[in-house]
Amino acid sequence: MKYIIGIGGVTNGGKTTLTNRIIKALPNCCVIHQDDFFKPQDQIEVGEDGFKQWDVLDSLDMEAMVSTVRAWMENPVKFARSHGVNVTPGSKEPASKDTHILVIEGFLLYNYKPLVELFDIRYYLAVPYEECKRRRSTRNYTVPDPPGLFDGHVWPMYLKHRKEMEDDGVDVVYLDGLKSRDELYNEVFEDIQNKLLNCL
Ligand SMILES: Nc1ncnc2c1ncn2[C@@H]1O[C@H](COP(=O)(O)OP(=O)(O)O)[C@@H](O)[C@H]1O
Ligand SMILES: NC(=O)c1ccc[n+]([C@@H]2O[C@H](COP(=O)(O)O)[C@@H](O)[C@H]2O)c1
Ligand SMILES: [Mg+2]
């Protein structure tokens, strides 16, 4: 069985932190980080507001990202081996036989049609404005945020994409990013275990 899990939501919601714990706990589990698909800086458009438009689908090579997901779907064992993931042989237990899991994490997972339909379950981490702004101010991206980027571009784009996703009726499981790392991990891990058992 193949199972694709999305961990999406707002920047600094805790997606990467949660993902890194979840993938360690699941068997035969590969991961794809959307951050790895940002286009080079010189290809990022500058908006009328003067800011580089990082937080839009055009800043990402989404075709390459979907191709990577499809490569996993076609041959998860080959994908795992070529990405250094240990593949354990299918045990005789029905609950673990030939189960392959892919976790995809990123801030714009559910606004791109060819990707959104590939998920078996979609988690969505959210944190309020003040906390998001506070966490973001401590982050060091490969390209540092210029002054005013959060209020001028990042937060408005988050609200826009979230509204589009909700208007499109995308089915997501909301997670409260204010909960502790442990609480989030336990909640999501338990939910995944139950979903996997229901699938088998
Ligand atoms: N549950 C949490 N509670 C408080 N801080 C968190 C939590 N999860 C992550 N963080 C912190 O918030 C920041 C962003 O986390 P990160 O996992 O990189 O988020 P994202 O990938 O969604 O941008 C980091 O400084 C991280 O240590
Ligand atoms: N990885 C990069 O090359 C890069 C560059 C500039 C901004 N960013 C920021 O990364 C954010 C998405 O990543 P997180 O969800 O982990 O915060 C976006 O809000 C974007 O502004 C990333
Ligand atoms: Mg991240």
UniProtKB/TrEMBL annotation:
<dbReference type="GO" id="GO:0005524">
    <property type="term" value="F:ATP binding"/>
</dbReference>
<dbReference type="InterPro" id="IPR027417">
    <property type="entry name" value="P-loop_NTPase"/>
</dbReference>
<keyword id="KW-0479">Metal-binding</keyword>
<keyword id="KW-0662">Pyridine nucleotide biosynthesis</keyword>
<comment type="pathway">
    <text>Cofactor biosynthesis; NAD(+) biosynthesis.</text>
</comment>
<protein>
    <submittedName>
        <fullName>Nicotinamide riboside kinase 2</fullName>
    </submittedName>
</protein>
<keyword id="KW-0808">Transferase</keyword>
<dbReference type="GO" id="GO:0061769">
    <property type="term" value="F:nicotinate riboside kinase activity"/>
</dbReference>
<keyword id="KW-0418">Kinase</keyword>
<dbReference type="GO" id="GO:0005829">
    <property type="term" value="C:cytosol"/>
</dbReference>
<keyword id="KW-0547">Nucleotide-binding</keyword>
<dbReference type="GO" id="GO:0019674">
    <property type="term" value="P:NAD+ metabolic process"/>
</dbReference>
<keyword id="KW-0067">ATP-binding</keyword>
<comment type="similarity">
    <text>Belongs to the uridine kinase family. NRK subfamily.</text>
</comment>
<dbReference type="GO" id="GO:0050262">
    <property type="term" value="F:ribosylnicotinamide kinase activity"/>
</dbReference>
<dbReference type="Pfam" id="PF13238">
    <property type="entry name" value="AAA_18"/>
</dbReference>
<keyword id="KW-0460">Magnesium</keyword>
<dbReference type="GO" id="GO:0019363">
    <property type="term" value="P:pyridine nucleotide biosynthetic process"/>
</dbReference>
<dbReference type="GO" id="GO:0046872">
    <property type="term" value="F:metal ion binding"/>
</dbReference>
